[in-house]
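Hello,

Following up on my earlier ticket. Below are the two sequence lines again, exactly as submitted.
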Amino acid sequence: MAQVFHRAANNVAKISIVVAVVLAATAGFVYTQLARSSYLTGQHVEKQQPVQFSHKHHSGDDGIDCRYCHTAVETSYSAGIPPTQTCMNCHSQIWSDSPYLEPVRASWRENKPIEWERVHDLPEYAYFNHSIHIAKGVGCSTCHGQIDNMPAVWQEHTLQMEWCLQCHREPEKYIRPKSEIYNVQWNDSELSDEERLQLKADYKIRSQEMLTSCSTCHR
Amino acid sequence: MLKSKFKVQSSKFKVRELISGLKLGAWNVRLFLLFAFCLFAVGCRYDMQDQPRYKAHKKSDFFADGKAMRELPEGTVPRGFLREDKAFYQGKTEGGQNATATAPNPAATPTMDSSGNTLVTDFTGLVSEFPLPVTEDLINRGEQRYNVFCIVCHGPVGNGDGMIVRRGFSKPPTYNDDRLRNAPVGHFYNVITNGQGKMNSYAAMVPPADRWAIVAYIRALQISQNPNGNMQMNSANPSNANAPTPIMNNANPVTTNNANVSGGAR
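Thanks for your patience. The regenerated structure is below:
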C-alpha cells in the first residue's frame, strides 16, 4: 500500500503533541488569570449608587464611627446598611436642600427604602459572618481597605476562597487589638510577632484545621 | 434521558471520527472533550450562587412593599419584647407620664433658648435612680457607645461642640450646666428613646441596656467636669441579678432582649 503520509508527517505529529501541551497550559493559565480578574470578581470596581454617598466625607472628614450606620456589624452576620432615618438624623438639617440628597428626602417622604447597589456579594453557597471576625480582632480595613478614602465604595479584595483561606491559615498575621478594629488607618506593622501570637491566644482563635475545614464556610 | 444520552453519544462518535480522520491520538480526543465539558460547566453555577431564599436587605418580589426584611404587624409583641418594667424600658416611674413609646416627651415645655433648643425644666414622672447596677463595666460600655452615637454632635465632654455641629448642625445644649446636672437620669434615657426637638430618636440604633450605659457615662462626664459638686449615681437595684444588663465587650454581643432581631445565623 502506498504511503498516505509523507515522512515529515511524523515530525508534524510530534510537534502537534508539544503544541497541544503548550496550548492547554496557556488555556489553563489564562483561565486562572481571568477568574481572578476584576472583570469576574468585581475587585476595584466602583458602582453607581442612587445617592452619591461618600465614605470619604462621612468617615474620613467627619469622623463618624462605622457603627453609627452599620449598627449590626458586631452582633450579626450582616453589617447592615443604614435606613433612611439614619441619614435624616443629620440631613433633616444640614445640606437639607442639596440636590444630591433629593433621593434621600424622596425615600423619607414616600417611606420607600433607597435601593443601594450591592458592592460585596458572596455567592450564596458560601457562609460569611461579620460578628465573629469583629469579635476575634479582624479590623474593617483588613478586608475592606481604606474605606475612608473612597468617594464610592469598591471591593478591595477578590473575595475568592483563596483569599479567605490565606487568612484562615495564619490569622495571627492579620489580627489587631480590639480598640483598633474601626481604625481604618491602622498599620499592620505596629505589632511584633510575639504580640500577635499573644493576641491570638487571648482571643482563643481556633486551630487551622477547624478554620480551613470545608464545613466552616460551606454549611 | 435515553434520547439525550444517545444524542451525546452520536455527536461524540462524529467528533471522534472527525478527529481520528486527522490521525490525532486518543488522548487529544479526550483532552478536547474535557475542554468542551469545562466550557459547558462554566454555565452551571448560577443557581447555586443565587438561591431562592432571603438574606438581609434583599429585594423581594413577593411582598408588596418590596422588602425581604419584614416589619412587625401592628399591635404584636415579639417574644422577649414584652417591656413591662417601666423604669427600665421607658425611664419613667410607675404612674408617671403615661406616654407611649413613640410620642415625644410631653414634659418638654416648649421654652426655647437662644439657639432654638427646647429648654426642659419639668422632669416629673421620670426616674431619678438607675434601674440597673452601676458598675465600671457599665460606664466603659457607655463610653464606647457614646463615642459611636453621640460624640458627633455632643462633643467629647458633652459641651455640644461635635464635628457635625461644626459643619452646621444646630448646637445642642451643654450637659455641663446646673439644669442638666440636676436633671434625673430618666430624662436622658427618655431623650435617647423618644428624641427631643431637633434631635431624632435613637431607639432604633441603641437598645435599652445600652441607653442606660450611655446615661451612666454622661453622668460620669458631668462629674468629671464638675469635680467639686456632690453628684451621685444611685441605683435602684444595685444587686438585682435578674436585671437585664448590657454585655460589656464585643465578644458577647448585646442579646438580652434583641436575640430575635439580629439573628446570628441565617
